[in-house]
Give the backbone structure.
Amino acid sequence: MRRATPMVIIVLWLRGVRRPIFPCGQAKNMRPLTQEETNTFFEKLSKYIGENIKLLIDRQDGSYCFRLHKDRVYYMSEEQLKIGSSAAGDTLLSIGSCFGKFTKSGKFHLHVTALDYLAPYAKHKVWLKPSAEQQFLYGHHIMKSGLGRLTEDTEQYQGVIVYNMNDLALGFGVAAKSTLACRNCDPMTIVVFHQADTGQYIRDEDTLT
Amino acid sequence: MGRKREILEDDKPKKGPGRKTKKQPAPSFKALLGDEGPKKLSHKQKQRQRKREEKKAEKASAGAKRKATPTPNSRPSKKPKLLFDSDGDDDENLRSSDSEEEEMQDEFSEDDVLSDSESEALEKESGKKAKKNEKKAANAATPKAKKQQEKGNAKTRKQEKMAAPESDDEEEDEKSDSDSDDEDESDEEMDVEKASKKLLKKQKQDESLAQDELMLNIKSQEKFTLPSGQEIEKEDILDLVILSECSLLVLLFVTRVWGKRDRVVNASNSRSGGRGISHIRHILADFSERREEGRSRKEYLDQLCRDLCARFNYNEFLMERLLGLFPNEIMDFLEANEYPRPVTIRTNTLKTRRRDLGPMLIDRGVNVEPMARWSGVGLTVFDTKVPLGATPEYLGGHYMLQGGASFLPVMALAPQERERVLDMCAAPGGKSSYIAALMKNTGLLWSNDANRERCKAIVSNLHRLGVINSLVTNYDGRAMKKVFHSFDRVLLDAPCSGTGVISKDEAVKINKDEKDILRCSHLQKELLLSAIDCCNANSKTGGYIVYSTCSIMVEENEWVIDYALKKRNVKIVPCGLDFGKEGFVNFEQHRFHPSLRLTRRFYPHTHNLDGFFVAKLQKFSNKIPGEENKTDQVEENGEESAKSENKTDQAEENGEDSAKSGDAESKGKKAANSDTKKQAKQKSTDKDSETSKSSSPDKNKAKKNATPDKKNFQSGKKVAGKLKKPGFLPKKGFKNKKKGN
Amino acid sequence: MADEKQSLVDTVLSQTSNDQQLKTTNVENEELIELDEGNLLAVNENKIDTKGFKKRGENVLLSLTRDATQVLFNSLWKLPESKTWLPREKPVPKKKAPTKWEEYAKGKGILNKKKSRMVWDEQSQQYKPRWGYNRANDDTKDWVIEVPDNADPYEDQFEKRKTAKKERVAKNELQRLRNIARTQKKKVPGIGLAPTEQPSKDHLSKALAVAHKSTASIGKFTDRLPKEKPSKFTGKKRKFEPSIGNLGTEKEKQLKVLDSVSKKIPTINVTKAANRVLRQDEEKRAEDKKSKKTPKKMKGRKATLGLGKPGRQGGGNKKTRGKRKR
């Protein structure tokens, strides 16, 4: 044991040199999600893409995984994970693509950055008229008047992906009314609650990731 | 609750102005400064203005009628005017005089900025101008002189009226006003007319005199003479005197002084304006023939430099450098810096194609056209009705706003699929996203930037553009080699003085000096070495480093590359860009490696891109020259075999060195004894003292006087030693693994 | 002998009193005197007070001379700055570790405000110390206390105040001890749960966790509810899987979670099904009621119902769908 100590000291010293000391005393490195976190995360995700989550986990073209880093969930390939873990916790700002973040109370919020994964697998979609496009991109809810099309069978509080008429994904939200109820409400009622839109890339650049 | 504050060491209560005081704007003394903008009218004044305009319109129509049926209509229109004329007119006069003063200033600056041809054209027109000026002066004079000399006033007005046919719109307004005034004084009209005719005659005479004198001026300056130092001072003083004189005399001898003043402007033009510059350049083109006796070339150059500085608002240091870089094309370059480069956008091939994006943008009201033939993804924007940075396509990540020049380093890098690529100074992520697009979102793209705030832009941009193979970190680029160093390609778009993008940031003209350039250069050298260290020479597909800056200074470009060639086992390879100018090999006191010809320079005036420099390096060995010997020694402590090994290493290395360094250098020199000579030579060529040490692998010497620099390399060298195994994870990764389990 | 001694003392005393007072080495207007130590020269170039000179004669000059000499000598005897660095006997005292509050305040940027020591006392109409003996606004000295509204009339308000004060003192003391313990890296004894006015949800679950453990067997045999979640307050730290572990097993775990999540998503749309059933019933009734003749409208609808297209919400064709609802 005694002989081993100098080595240990050297190692510690080196580590001290390389790694910045965190003010909170805990290393903020990446880690896999716990069972509960996975649960809440998948529940939220399934509102938008249903069982298509499986396509994200079980991929043919290589192994991909979710990692939690500073309360945010990132989706990355194995190579990225391995190389990325050589970067120290607080210097690592983003790896792969960010899906969203866990709030302090343990809920999960999807970010607009997940749109690239949600859009292709979306179950329910909403198309906006060109006039309402800009409104949505400024973070407003969608009125009946701005609604172009809507997937049939959309239930209330179902997650929907929002497109413009050129099939360009603009963001996502939650249906405030079911498809049926949408038909006979007046044009100023809110049909889809805004959750995230691509305008946030400009508006919330600092807080997004 | 709320957000936690960052814990600082010394927390002291904040001093200085609080929030409230910050809100208040600084006091401004507009009246004192005398640069009032357009005056805000009070409600009543507005009303009056409106009425006046109505009246004018009426009068115009009435005037048309009057021509058909003479005078009697004119009487009734006069009366209501009297009600408000006194102060309303006064007021307007004031305003107009203000605006005219501004115009005067404008003219000054115009004179300064105008190019040769324009200024010449101006001179031709100057006759016209003289008239104009006269009139303005008259206007300026009226408010004060009004009460004292009604008559004189009337005269000037009359004169105005006579000159009216050539006048501008606003002057017409006044004219119509004065028209109405004239009608008041129609009784005196005969006298006034006589006087004004006299005046007109005199004025014409003056003009012709002025014209003659002007021509004289031009003739005398056909043979350009350099002003001496005293002369320059004198002229400055003269200018001042005459100008102050002007302000005094304006009230008294309006016409004459204005004639004079015009001449002054011309004179000063010939010194600091385009004529002087073109003359000096003309002389410098064939110096021995055209020069004035007893004047050295340097004097002319200095004068040229001064003139250019004055005209384009550069500081002298920068202008000297630019003159050194572009002895012939300096004017083109400077002019090009005055105009912005065309706005270009890059299609994000991860999400769309150029031929899809183009029509879509045109639908939005953006006039685009494919960029030059060398880029398959660029679009040039001519004009746009919508903000380009906020269209749904932009937000959806279909394109990126990016200068054309920033495509170049990425194209030179030519990243392949499934590679590991490092972008060392990535913010704001334009180049990074292009790299990812070329890699088709495979492999790994590590984007790093030292500035944490700017890193956020990288993250946002990469996500927006749908890049999924990225990794964004916030390290100092110089520390990157310790984090991970097995990249296939490295792009270093180094922070620089920005002398290539003056059109984007005018401040560069003034605020850069020698120190800034050298500071940049030093940082760039460190970064480049670090970039080279990060790259893995044993990579199957890569081992390339691309260095680029948006500066055109040789110190920040060729010098840095030359330094890296001496310090690391790298060579320059062609960039793969078939246009652009070759890099310098000889520049002023610098003598660079001949292969620097393979680097590329881009200029605003030749390529209509931002000023840019691109160099592509290939790393052929992971060893660091002058370093591995010492590692060997440390590792094989005391073993005799080390010595022999070192010797062979050294010999090999010298071989490499000589192969690297120019033909002239290597010719007829034995590797073994060339060390000292080479060192001496390098010292002489390279002013930077850093280079002198490790360029030659004289290991004993180096070991004895190990400087901090050396020590650095020592720590880096351990890493290099490990590098022999390709494709491994760095130590930290391993450690984490072990510890975590 | 004694007399002699006495006389000696007397003479000395009288001499000293005669010598006037011996002056100190300090000189009043030192800065007026210019010194040139190399030449042992001291110069006072100031004007002599003529009035004083007339009165006191040369004494003025003498005193000035003395002053100058004194200053000169002072400067001659001045020690130069020390060169060697002498070690301290004791190390520099360490900075006191910040208390928990201080840390918190620092994090939040809360700064200390200096409060004045004296406070205006309404009752006695004078300034009194804020705390301590004879303090201002002393509520322990009240001889009568109003019973507050909706308070128990039989409660002893004096006693209540006293206990509250004691509690506060005790809490403060505990806080102090804990701060000390924390700085010395000693384990702070848990105090269990301090009573609070409005216990939160966390508070309750904490109390529950403590109660669970408070048996002789440290909660080993405590009964649990059938679906009780494990407490958050077990005192154990969370442990996570390694970041670079086996991705295969991780994937399987996630698939399992996904299964459970997707089970929660009902495969049958209940509202939709219920709607359909209701409508079918309605139609049946309508058919029964009405004559055999079916109106033209219904024909199409019947057919679709018969086919039982699952995707359609309303049945019928597009034209009729909207109308029917009204």
Notes: Strands of chain C lie at 33-36, 41-44, 118-121, 126-129.
